[in-house]
Amino acid sequence: MTARIILQVFDQYQKARLLFVQSIADLASKPSNIECLEAVGVLNLLKPLLSDVVPSIQHMAAVALGKLANHNIKLAEDIIQEDIIPQLLHNIDKQNKFYKKAVLFILRAIAKHSVETASIIVQMNGLDALITCLEDFDPGVKEAAAWGFGYVARHNKSLAQATVDAGAVPLLVLCLQEPELYLKQIGASVLCDISKHSMDLAQTVVDASAIPYLAKALSNPDVKLKRQVLSALGSIAKHSSNLAEAVVEAEVFPNVLIHMGHPDENIAKAAAVLSKEVCKHTLELAQLIVNMGGIGAFMELISTPNVAHRLPGIMALGYIAGHSDQFAMAVIGSLSVIQLAMILEKETDNHILAVTAWTLGQIGKHTPEHAKSVAITNVLPKLLEIYNNPKSPDDLKAKCYTALKQILQKCLHIEALETLLHDAPPNVLKYILGQFSKVNLFIIFTNFYFM
């Protein structure tokens, strides 16, 4: 009888512990509860339960900690200060998959907040645990480990390099080859987070043979995977012409240009950014994009009302036009200048205005014919108006001034020059008067020649 009573007491205690951690995990799901949970000292109550003899209680305690850390940077820092992380990581390779995923969620929740918290995860050998779990047979554990690497790598170059040094890249490339869609998605996402920081990191991703698998994944109908693949390829291509050529050699074009018309906004933007990153490097890469109908695709993109779509499209047209006078004339022939003039007239976003001004300068800088094609759309007075506006930010003013200078130095269109005389400040007026002198010399020379 006594033994049964004792066992009943212990059974009630176990049920109470389990109910407690389950309740805390549920309460921690709502951000509005976090402050109150912190005030009652929830960490001190959860910490001993991480070593509970019952695996399900250990697991739920870890889940609760992860939710708390996810919502609140102070609690994430408290978990670090309480020395809970070494306790979590101890013998993680021998734990069951549920506990592993809960611990990995805690690492990810802490790492996401700042460079400092992510760096502490690295210093506490958290990346070794992530590698161990990324090699796990269970796909759910692999996914959770990959998420952890993503939250560390995205902060800065140093932390991304730490993920590379830990040996994550080959394992992430293997994720792209797994049958599970969610592993392909997170694999592409983390490779993007790593490669975006520097040319060397992007080269490491390329050397791990990631590009062929990313290119293959682009044909998958899943919207999220397409976006992440395009973003990863863009993060690689942006650093150098060699890396951009490596992307092009995977034969993702013209498929990427087709994706610029995708109904999903994020895919269309990612495709436009990738195309922009490729065409900016060299004349040959720009020629490739032009030959595949890139100018028309960018023209359609900048005609949309979506600001996020317009930006990479406008920049791409500027890069293409800047490479050669023939490309600039092709941009003019697509009627893009008219669309750019409309954007300059109606847009209120300073960043869009600055990029539009820069692109107009790239188009009009080549010859008098190019300058005239830009000038007749009446953009010069608008550029001058923005430049003269005291409320315009310095970067926007600088872009407008450079565009005016580039176009005016080639412009021989008298009507366009005359419209600027009244409002032009001295540093712009000198270019206008310089062009008038060229026109007058041309007239004198012509009259003399035909006398």
Describe this structure in words.
The chain has helices at residues 2-27, 31-39, 42-46, 55-71, 73-81, 84-89, 97-111, 115-123, 126-134, 139-153, 157-165, 168-176, 181-195, 199-207, 210-217, 223-237, 241-248, 255-259, 265-279, 283-291, 294-302, 307-323, 325-333, 336-346, 350-364, 368-375, 379-388, 394-408, 414-418, 426-450. It is an all-alpha fold and 451 residues long. Helix 25 runs parallel beside helix 28. The protein starts with a helix and ends with a helix. This is Sperm-associated antigen 6. It holds the Pfam family Arm. It comes from Odynerus spinipes.
- The percentage of residues in β strands lies in under 5%
Number of helices: 30
Distance between the termini: 131 Å
Tertiary shape: elongated
Protein name: Sperm-associated antigen 6
InterPro entries: ARM-like (IPR011989), ARM-type_fold (IPR016024), Armadillo (IPR000225)
GO molecular function: microtubule binding
Write the layout of secondary structure elements.
Blueprint: H1 2-27, H2 31-39, H3 42-46, H4 55-71, H5 73-81, H6 84-89, H7 97-111, H8 115-123, H9 126-134, H10 139-153, H11 157-165, H12 168-176, H13 181-195, H14 199-207, H15 210-217, H16 223-237, H17 241-248, H18 255-259, H19 265-279, H20 283-291, H21 294-302, H22 307-323, H23 325-333, H24 336-346, H25 350-364, H26 368-375, H27 379-388, H28 394-408, H29 414-418, H30 426-450
Helix pairs in contact: 1-4, 4-5, 4-7, 7-10, 9-10, 10-13, 12-13, 13-16, 15-16, 16-17, 16-19, 19-22, 21-22, 22-23, 22-25, 24-25, 25-28, 27-28, 28-30
GO biological process, one term: cilium movement
Protein name: Sperm-associated antigen 6
GO molecular function: microtubule binding
